[in-house]
């Protein structure tokens, strides 16, 4: 049985444990129908031209984790940003781990989707927001919607801000030979609310993991949301991250994506600007080696006047790694005075590595500022010579240059400890110890 | 200190240096002048180990040791320093951190421990004051957004920090206004000692009014066509290079 059949036929078993009268259930039923009709995307789909899910579909993934596994905090501590105090929502093999988590209902709700789906006090928020930003057309998003049951639920009421940043951590223990996970996150920041979130997927063994995640983020008027995606997973872990962001007037949403490890990563990052004077920021650092593959598909839909968007993606590709950047910007006819900026710079370190970079601009308004740029190159030899002439060995000099290349993406990271951590991961990936803390 | 014997160097089969002979003793300052395209910067980069150039015949000896097989970083560890004509920008790495890395890498190569932080700070303070460099400047990203003059001053700051045996200043005067030129030249003069040597590459005599050379060489078409004392620089200023070109053609 292939993966699609397996998923479709499992849906009934999945339904068994759920409240079929819940308003969300209709969404699930419609979603599985859409997935059944469309199936997994193939290379024939323009949006999936460079990323193949064929290999993954041959693997016999367990769809529901069979058993609960307890992990000791000390064994997974390193995957947390542990040098600052944070709220934590932790899942082990897709199951919530209360032992590793720290949730709250103190003025803000930092808890679970399973609670939000089942408890009456959350029903109104679910009705207003759940599946309202996510695509009903895209098959993998539908697949996630169909099986949506667990994930992070974060609700920040008007004028509120949680006391500390929130970490969402998805751990896979390898108890199953191959495991498919479908976390579903809902983040709502009401008017003038503010929140900082870090999300990370981490497999702890060499067993196959395939995560198809959907996150919906709603930013009310004047709200500020910072979302950091740390993708530094094991070489047998694959991730399709579908994120949908809906913004209202004057809100600011910044998403940073650090793609530093994993087998296959596909990021579908979609911003919808539903108001004026909105600021959307999309930044990414990708550093790959071996046969790793990362595909960034971004969409910024400017639907109202006077909004901005800033995209800055840097990629460094070694060995036989492959990268894709596809940045789509749509400016509706009424979205005058839009200021949309997009940049994608890449360094290829080996003859076998490749990057496909494509800007896609669809502009229907006439008074807009849209700029895009893309570069693909090697490390600058003259610069390398400069550093080496100061006594810095070739390897360290290269690392310093790559760091300098990716650096401005880190400038907008607002949690200093996270910035330090990312720097450390980058230095480790580049195999150097810098003479200073980056 | 430095002995160059019959040095030939080419890039993409084009020969640029066509048999350079030069001897620089410890304690001396040599100026190398010459028209554009004569090979001055190539000579500087070849000494520093730029791998872009193919070194054919000839040798470069530093304190008797042939540099041919050494990488740029190894040459730096042995005390070679090149002040670049066009210093490179490194965003995200401060001047201070860059210097710490460079100095500690050189120390590591010599089997020494990292320089203690307090000593490093003291040295940075001392050398930046000598070159009248604002402290704020030191925490800025290396060369990023620096003016031409700031870049050059920063090069000499690095020279002061690294205390090389052999320093080559490649057109350090270009892009400097007269005040900056004086400060930079002052700094270089303070770094002169009986144990090190300096090669100043320049188009103009102007810098040599402040850094007074012991010897002046004229490089033309990949060869040193004339050598003399500081008076030669004055003569060149007055008469230009044409008479030398004619002389060389004969």
UniProtKB/TrEMBL annotation, chain A:
Residues 23-168 form the SUF system FeS cluster assembly SufBD N-terminal domain. Belongs to the iron-sulfur cluster assembly SufBD family. PANTHER family: PROTEIN ABCI7, CHLOROPLASTIC. This is Fe-S cluster assembly protein SufD. SUPFAM superfamilies: Stabilizer of iron transporter SufD. Signal peptide: none annotated. The gene is sufD. Pfam families: SUFBD_core, SufBD_N. Residues 175-405 form the SUF system FeS cluster assembly SufBD core domain.
Automatic annotation (TrEMBL), chain B:
It holds the Pfam family ABC_tran. InterPro entries: AAA+_ATPase, ABC_transporter-like_ATP-bd, FeS-cluster_ATPase_SufC, P-loop_NTPase. It comes from the Bacteria. Keywords: ATP-binding, Nucleotide-binding. Residues 2-246 form the ABC transporter domain. The keyword Nucleotide-binding applies. Belongs to the ABC transporter superfamily. Ycf16 family. This is Fe-S cluster assembly ATPase SufC. The gene is sufC.
